Structure prediction request, 165 residues.
Amino acid sequence: MSTEAVYLSDVRAQFAKLKELAEKALAQVRDDELNVSLDAEANSIAVIMKHMAGNLRSRFTDFLTTDGEKPDRNRDGEFEIPGQPDRAAAMAHWEQGWSILFATLDGLTPGDLQKDVLVRGERLSVVQALNRQMTHHAYHVGQIVFLAKHLRSGEWKTLSIPRRR
Prediction:
């Protein structure tokens, strides 16, 4: 297997791990906790999910042929959720974004890594764009895990190796 093929396989695997980690944290949060934020400037889990899904849809729809910032994207609107979020609707939107990502990744070939894409008018190699997205989403998954752990407190079930007690 070529280095390029190994890279593409690993990128997909790492994104899948990020999604799984976030979903294990989400599974521990009650519906009424999805919209809790720590302060007026902080984002809730529901807002972070909405932003991640919108970002994935925008960046990975027609990934190789159009700018990753789609004209119909309302980025600022991703940080607003009127009323109490509905878990089913939030999860459906979440799944849609991740499905677009994985379909795009599954369609990429080793030769595509030699191409450039545009993200907000900035020319990036496909490798740079993928790495940038992965770090962006790892950041937000960390926020989801942090908030979920904070909200569940003593009821939290660790997602990694538990501390010795």
User: Anything to note?
Assistant: Residues 58 and 72 are 9 Å apart (CA to CA).
